[in-house]
Amino acid sequence: MLNEHDIQTLLQRVINRSPGDETEVLFLGLDEALTRFANNEIHQNVAETNFSLAVSVAFGKRVGMAATSDLSDAALDRLLEQAAMLARLQPENPDFPGFAPPAEFPAGRQAFDEATAAATPEFRARAVGEVLRYAVDRGAVASGAFSTSRYQWAIATSHGLFAWQPLTLAELTIVAMTETGSGYAADAAWQVEQIPVAQWGKIAVDKALASQNPRDIPPGEYPVVLEASAVQDLVAFIGGGANGMSVTEGSSWMSGRQGQALFSPAITLVDDPAAPEHWPMAFDFEGTPRQPLTLIRQGVVGDAYYNRQWAARTGHPATGHGTPPINPFEPGSAMGRAMFPLHLTLQAGDTPIEQLIATVERGLYVTRFNYTRTVHPREVVVTGLTRDGTFWIEGGEIAYPVKNLRFTQSYVEALQHVAAVGDTLHREPAYGGFTRNPALQLTQFRFTGKTEF
What we know:
The protein is an alpha+beta fold.
């Protein structure tokens, strides 16, 4: 992979050849290695090196973008020609703020780990092997993946901005199965040593065994204890809906409600790019310094986040949440300029998960949600299924496994009915990294259908 000096030289070379009034060049590099396992066997070790160069050219308020993975001079000339042609064909965008000027980036935001970057197939296989041996010994079947990745992101503009950051990320997902039960565990961190692979394997297998022979229960409203993996879904939908475009257009749960006590006072949701226990980053994909935000503070609706265009359109400051015009996690795929939080943390409370369960007389314990889709974005009404370990709670104890249920529930409403918040934060893989979430006890959650499994 190219180093910082090589990337800076490349980006400046593109800018020097550009015919536009303004030019932005974004480099997205990825080295990823993955160990995949199924049916209690490692069946695949793969490695990929990929990068994309996305060039945006502006003539006044007309902007065009093109991308390539060919760094030859002829390819770069074609790339600029294509971006320039598309720019001339575009209507003027009155909200185009221009490309980013030079900026001071926060010091000390480092998310690069040599051990993660250098992790070998043998290293991952040894860790996965412990999971597989435990599954075999207990008559379960384990599947999943363990990956270690290295990213390089860099941006330069014709106004003199250059910013570069290397990052690492390790991700683990395990699903364990028996004939009638399943269990799940996952983790992600920018330091691979923080992921206890064998421990997560034991959790997934033990849950698969505990969830065998599930019983049928009717749909309805029940108190629930949501594991952190299920809470991740609430956090992702709520966090994703706090973007400045949706807020301005009136389709966000935030619209017209900022400053209101909309949620339980137990809920505080932050997006903190400086947190070393998260995935610290100094700048976004537009070259804006990333700012910490509090989306919800003790139940009160807080700040939305803005990319450069929507900041200029609404008069808000850009918060460093701009996305690239192509997908940084699948280089070469189209994405479009948008905004997204990559550092969401739902702050922990003070209640151990055992106590969350012990204070429920009759209700459900949910490991995670699956195949969730938005029904109504304004109230964040979501439908989906429970999965990989759903249990009935009776008299403050987990009594028996139950068949999975479909739910249709406003996540805004759900977070108004928080009885207690778990005392431990768990990292859960999510689009663009991971979130950090505690378990929650909710006094009611609406289940609208049932399954046969």
